[in-house]
Amino acid sequence: MRHVESVQEFLPLNNIVPSESALSTVEPRLRAMVDALPAYIAYVDTELRYTMVNRTYEEWFGRPASEMLGRTVGEVLGDSLRNVQEHLKAALKGETQRFEARLRTVTGDRVLFVVHLPDRDETGAIRGVIIHGHDVTDRVLAEEQLRLSEERLRLALSAADGVGTWDWDVTADLVRADPTFARLYGVPLSRAAIGAPIAAFTRNIHPEDAERVGEAIARTVEACGDFAAEYRLLMEDGTVRWVFARGRCTLAENGISHRFPGVVIDITARKQGEEALLQTEKLAAVGRLASSIAHEINNPLESVVNLLYLIESSSTETETRTYAHVAQDELARVSQIVTQTLRFFKQSTLPSVIRPAELIDSIVTLYRGRLANSAIEVKLEIRDEASGLLCEGEVRQILNNLVGNAIDAMREHGGQLTLRARGVSDERNGGKGVRLIVADTGTGMGRETLNHIFEPFFTTKGARGTGLGLWVSKQLSEKNHGRLRVRSSIDPRRHGTVFSLFLPYVSAESVAS
Ligand code: ADP
Ligand code: MG
After folding, report:
1. Which of 333, 328, 329 is nearest to 293 (CA)?
2. Looking at the predicted structure, is the pLDDT value of residue 22 above 60?
3. Ligand 1, closest atom to CA 444?
4. DSSP secondary-structure letter at 462?
5. pLDDT tens, 409-434?
6. Is the shortest distance between the CB of 461 and ligand 1 below 6 Å?
7. What is the rounded CA–CA span in Å between residue 260 and residue 226?
8. Which ligand is nearest to the CA of 409?
9. Which of 296, 419, 451, 459 to mutate to test the pocket of ligand 1 (most atoms within 8 A of CB)?
10. Is 278 helix (H, G, I), strand (E, B) or coil?
């Protein structure tokens, strides 16, 4: 409407269009102004014949005024703009017309906002129509872009099931929300569409999360910053849903009011998945523990079986008693291991200590039967200075595993088992300790095997192995602040494996306490 008024300001219409010869009477200065307007202006009489067109009109329709003046709109525009003619006819009946018209011009497609204004003489009779149109292509394109991107956003959100959006006018405390958001927060859709106070939405946050989320919102508004929070919503049907909300508080253009728009995503499914995973992980850990117990008690039980065999075939009573003694010790160890494995990650209370020499001795005794059966020669290298104290049960468990593996590796072809104990100081802190070596001339291990031996359940022995021995040994040595290392060769000339275990000595008191 404003445009039309401005046109009238430029065109004292009563002066310039009183007759068919209007064009010639237009004052040149005025005419120049009309031509300079970026809008198009034309005048048609009651028969819809052009009596005036400005320069822009000529340009947009791509014809000189001479081709238009005196002709009817129908002749000039043809069928292409039939609706324009309808508007003109309506204007001739006295109704001002306002409409958008799409126009194919020499410079491309344009959208015009057109006004057809009836022009009356002094008596009030209509004598023609003032045509005014200005280019709104840019605005329409911008609107179209906006509409499209909003459409796309809406599509994207609805495609991503359970994504809702909100826009909070903080100053007015009005939250406008889309249906997904409204549904999640239990606010009627119609209310959410026109806007409701934030309290109507936060009311449904789980009581245990409400305070935390409330504080986060307050902080965001205060700092005009970013917001991100994971929390639970209490649904009307009593179920709980997890959501992840992300938003940003910004100062509006007026510099006073705050806006705080954002997106919320329903992450309930993910949360349930995580929960299930944790549960599975726990079960797996329990399973691992159970099989490690089984594995660890297998060794002493195996030696009890060996000892019973020896007792049966022993010739003297002393010999029998010695074996029975060892068997008793081994059985005691079974119960010890069970308790210990259960306490594995909790505490390290083991009352007894032992010297490396004694420990190695007892292990050799233990395996005597198997060693002899497999034609394995044992070589002991125990230095006198290796005389500190070690935590008995756990170190025994490690050595048992290492010796057991060495025997397995030499089971078929025999070989030599070397057990060495040497007093050393810790390369890291100079503390005193022992280096125990368990070396065999067995099969050895290739690189692939070596990469995995400390992993639980890794075994190359099929059903005979559990793959837990080295895993447990590694954990136990770390728990005792020790280090377990391995070197191995499958070179046919000098194959075999060397496990080296460093353990710091313990003081008897520290173990007792
Ligand atoms: P398991 O003895 O039940 O297989 P371990 O954890 O004790 O489980 O050992 C894992 C794997 O490491 C064995 O299956 C074997 O392949 C390899 N291994 C361990 N010690 C030796 C050794 N002294 N010589 C050759 N291979 C060994
Ligand atoms: Mg083993």
Report:
1. 333
2. no
3. 25
4. G
5. 999 999 999 999 999 988 778 889 99
6. yes
7. 9
8. 1
9. 459
10. helix
Can you give the pLDDT at residue 256?
67
Residue 500 · residue 436 · CB < 8 Å:
yes
Backbone angles phi, psi at 321, to 5 degrees: -65, -40
Quick check: 341 pLDDT over 70? no
Tokens of 203: 């009311």
Could you give the residue ranges of the DSSP H alpha helices within 266-355? 268-313, 317-342
What is the average pLDDT value for the chain, to the nearest integer? 82
Answer whether 155's CB lies under 8 Å from 135's CB. no
DSSP secondary structure of 73-142: HHHHHGGGGHHHHHHHHHHHTT--EEEEEEEEETTEEEEEEEEEEEEE-TTS-EEEEEEEEEE-HHHHHH
CA distance 152 to 54: 42
Q: Report whether residue 459 contacts ligand 1, using a CB cutoff of 6 Å.
A: yes
Pocket of ligand 1 contains residue 460 by CB under 6 Å: yes
- For residue 347, pLDDT over 70 is answered with no
Amino acid, single-letter form, for residue 234: L
Task: Report the C-alpha gap between 282 and 286 in whole angstroms.
Answer: 6
Model pLDDT, residue 463: 65
Quick: pLDDT tens for 140-158.
Answer: 888 777 777 776 676 666 6
**CB-based contacts of 405: which residues, under 8 Å, 6+ apart?**
469, 470, 497
Please report which residue ranges of 411-468 form alpha helices under DSSP H: 447-452
CA 426/CA 429 separation, integer angstroms: 6
Give one DSSP letter per residue of 167-180, joined into a string: EEETTTTEEEE-HH
